[in-house]
Predict the 3D structure of the following.
Amino acid sequence: MWRHGERCVILAVAAVALVAAATATAAAAVGGERRTYIVHMSRSAKPNDFVEHGEWYAASLQSVSDAATVLYTYDTLVHGYSARLTRAEAEALESQPGVLLVNPEVRYELHTTRTPEFLGLDRTDALFPQSNTGSDVIVGVLDTGVWPERPSYDDAGLGPVPAGWKGKCEEGNDFNASACNKKLIGARFFLTGYEAAKGPVDTSKESRSPRDNDGHGTHTSSTAAGSAVRGADLLGYAAGTAKGMAPHARVATYKVCWVGGCFSSDILKAMEVAVNDGVDVLSLSLGGGTADYYRDSIAVGAYSAMERGIFVSCSAGNAGPGSATLSNGAPWITTVGAGTLDRDFPAHVVLGNGKNYSGVSLYSGKQLPTTPVPFIYAGNASNSSMGALCMSGSLIPEKVAGKIVLCDRGTNARVQKGFVVKDAGGAGMVLANTAANGEELVADAHVLPGAGVGQKAGDTMRAYALSDPNPTASIVFAGTQVGIQPSPVVAAFSSRGPNTVTPGILKPDLIAPGVNILAAWSGSVGPSGLAGDSRRVGFNIISGTSMSCPHVSGLAALLRAAHQDWSPAAIRSALMTTSYNGYPNGNGILDVATGLPATPLDVGAGHVDPSKAVDPGLVYDIAAADYVDFLCAINYGPMQIAALTKHTTDACSGNRTYAVTALNYPSFSVTFPATGGTEKHTRTVTNVGQPGTYKVTASAAAGSTPVTVSVEPSTLTFTKSGEKQSYTVSFAAAAMPSGTNGFGRLVWSSDHHVVSSPIAVTWT
Ligand SMILES: *[C@@H]1O[C@H](CO)[C@@H](O)[C@H](O)[C@H]1NC(C)=O
Ligand SMILES: *[C@@H]1O[C@H](CO)[C@@H](O)[C@H](O)[C@H]1NC(C)=O
Ligand SMILES: *[C@@H]1O[C@H](CO)[C@@H](O)[C@H](O)[C@H]1NC(C)=O
Ligand SMILES: *[C@@H]1O[C@H](CO)[C@@H](O)[C@H](O)[C@H]1NC(C)=O
Ligand SMILES: *[C@@H]1O[C@H](CO)[C@@H](O)[C@H](O)[C@H]1NC(C)=O
């Protein structure tokens, strides 16, 4: 959850510095600095003088630069190569025949923080009745690598590696080929692009191999498909059996993220190699591309993966709760937001005035004395204007010694603040939210007795610390609590729609557990991921859409095993149309950011419900050709479409009308001008259940203003499996102020199935 205020600030500052640096460089240097570009070529344009495409690429590169060498060639998902080029060279290449696009390398971010966050039990037992399926399914995870010795990669009981698997266990620092087995069937690493940009990997900090020195990749891959491990816990919290969503599926890891980030030339190559290796599902808990799809390597790689029937699941991002904050919004990707589980890790902060506040904590260790401890606000224990944040070196030891210190959340890492208080001699810490985080609570494995509290509690505690002549406090840790209601609630950090690249496609697609997730961890770092943290744990509890994405990847593996003929779009449709968006009492799933019911812009179709997804009744299928029509509809040019699809001739016919509203998506995003209007969508559903008749109900409204939704026909009768039926939906609405949103649902119901689609309406 790098979103949580803390790192965002740092990233924003860095971005300003980069822009300044880039401007200065452009002004100063004539030749310009080299950076990596991905050069997309039209394979069929190769002149006959060249036998191999590689020779042609090398010649193309040499024609603009003597100095540049090819970093990677790409020949499956895209055609072309990457190389270090000056801007002038890149521009020269762009006008060469056969060159479709020249995309500058982009650095992507993991969609979580390196510091541990929530604590919670993985609910996989409840989620997976048919968990013995999936042993022929291979989940490829692009991330920070793997810690193969963890019991989550135990292969006991698994049959031979699926036939046709071409993956490898690559050796490197601290990593032998023998690390792989029948569970972890592949482990590779990609750093040519990274090292070209950042210089050689510092092997004192990270292994030049598939080994995970971060924890993130071990966490995500074990969440998707880790074997069941009894007696898992973090420092005594969340004790139980930890198990991936598809515990019998195989895992292949592709390390693309290093200390300095995840680079698009490496990501694209890793996706290509994973596809050639034979993965069935690709899981990417990273992002950063909000650019057009043909500029976003994840979208580009995912397109060709989709064409090959590979399900690609990506995290929506942790930039919520603001609107239009999501990444990975391409319609051929399944975009996953995050919700909470029904578990919590309460800690009670009791003040000297008798007031009792509930907070959260994963602290484990020596407890505070049961008698009240002096309490002080960090802002009054520092001579620095940043003192309230408990920045390194900012606390005055004489003022905090032996006390519980209230630190404001923000700017530096939450667990780091505990180190600062401890170093200054403090006895404990209350970590209080400010307006930036509201009531969102994050339980951390603090290094001293510490608890996180919401903004409201924080405000009254600050006031108490400032006004009481002898303020005192105590913190009581209450362990792991289950059955927390309501749950799930949408995590504040979960990135929200609308989809900025194509507002006509509703994103995220759905949410899954992404808060308080317990899964395997690296042996190289402590649970906080901080350098000063010498603790080592086999499991860790962290949060982010990085955690929700592999839940969906694992579920997709189960569905793939249960329905081998389903396309990626059919699998996504099943997950979406069976997801739920309310609690058993009928109230809508809440958004922790607002305390109000979430909307389809927050949760898409709703929260995943795997046991229902196995038998969805109807699916909205999408073939690769339909996505080409979609690309025509969004007015991509021939070169841009070719970079994604590799279609060499102009894919869009001049005498056809293309419409985003015709893409057979299992959700509806409707856009009206402020004056109101009408919009017609067409859809086709495929019966994947028994014969039967479905009746539609559909409605939408913006507050008390209804949107007219009419569906034609309103009844669909299926006599056999595989049968397709089409319908049209017309949305009509009066004028509304621009920026108004309305929401609703369109539901097909039979005696056995409910096929539910969300509707989001925006007046622009
Ligand atoms: C790799 O194998 C060598 C030789 O058997 C062994 O000494 C080394 O400890 C192994 N390394 C790891 C990380 O397992
Ligand atoms: C504080 O409140 C919790 C319940 O919210 C309760 O379990 C705990 O005992 C209370 N502690 C004190 C000291 O009142
Ligand atoms: C404590 O800090 C607040 C503001 O941060 C200030 O208004 C107040 O005067 C300070 N109190 C003491 C005793 O330093
Ligand atoms: C502020 O506090 C730090 C740490 O106690 C100390 O080194 C520094 O001299 C102080 N500065 C002022 C201006 O008091
Ligand atoms: C429309 O396309 C068809 C074939 O795709 C072609 O035969 C026809 O001439 C086209 N019509 C126009 C007006 O371009």
The chain is about 20% helix and 25% strand.
